[in-house]
Specification:
With about 250 residues, this protein is an alpha+beta fold. It contains ten helices and seven strands.
């Protein structure tokens, strides 16, 4: 594995910081139990004029990923910097489509979490039954399952379904969040996963569920900004990194 100092000397300070945050995000996803062995992806755009992106090296567990092991690719998935690793072509099909269509989507996070897949298989999708769900429902889209994402012809349909939303439920497949930075993408996935977990548990209880008034959902985004003091995921991010430093250090290597 290439030494971190060698990579750090080849990239800008802004790119290195993005690498550190993205590696931390991978490890946090593993820590929260949303990973799926070596599968699924989190991609982040490299700051600068080029359309270059960072994505996980195919074959490493999320808990093993470091800033220097991330692979830099272009929108076609071609490596633009030497790496001993390959990437998963299926994973980047989804990510490249969203990055190409959404300039604001600097980070795209995709999971196959058990709760997320369970709800994605339900016809009604996310139900308005928890406080977490209202933030998701305020910006949620759905995309029907078309098999493993390997075909380029699926890209326009996926992009059209996502539109300008931050949350995408991939039917029979999993969850996806798109955000302007890594911290927000992680916070969005935390809410998405929590909403799905609560829904599955509430349904398993067997009692009649209480729905939330649609008028409350309409004001959810304003409520979220008030709670996070306009900072979004950035408010919790430093605390999450401190937890990671205690439990799984080394992501900044």
């Amino acid at each position: 594995m290439m030494h971190s100092a060698a990579i750090r000397n080849q990239v800008s300070a802004e790119e290195w910081q993005q690498r550190v945050d993205l590696a931390a995000c991978y490890r946090l996803v593993a820590q929260f139990g949303w990973d799926d062995l070596i599968f699924t992806h989190i991609s982040a755009r490299v700051p600068g004029p080029e359309h270059h992106f960072l994505i996980n090296p195919y074959g490493l567990l999320f808990e093993e990923i470091t800033a220097s092991s991330l692979v830099k690719v272009d929108l076609q998935g071609n490596q633009v910097m030497d790496s001993e690793y390959d990437i998963n072509p299926a994973g980047f099909t989804i990510h490249s489509a969203i990055h190409a269509a959404r300039e604001d989507a600097k980070c795209v996070l995709h999971t196959h979490s058990l709760n997320g897949v369970a709800v994605s298989a339900q016809k009604e999708g996310v139900l308005p039954i928890s406080q977490q769900s209202i933030f998701v429902l305020a910006s949620l889209a759905y995309h029907d399952y078309e098999g493993v994402a390997l075909r380029d012809d699926e890209k326009p349909r996926l992009v059209a379904d996502l539109g300008d939303k931050s949350f995408l439920m991939l039917r029979n497949h999993g969850l996806l969040t798109a955000a302007g930075n890594i911290a927000d993408a992680f916070l969005f996935m935390y809410l998405f996963e929590a909403a799905c977990m609560i829904q599955v548990r509430a349904q398993s209880g067997g009692g009649e569920l209480i729905g939330i008034d649609p008028r409350i959902i309409e004001t959810a985004q304003a409520q979220a900004q008030a709670v996070t003091r306009q900072a979004g995921g950035a408010l919790a991010w430093p605390a999450l990194l401190r937890r990671l430093d205690r439990r799984n250090p080394g992501y900044a290597d």
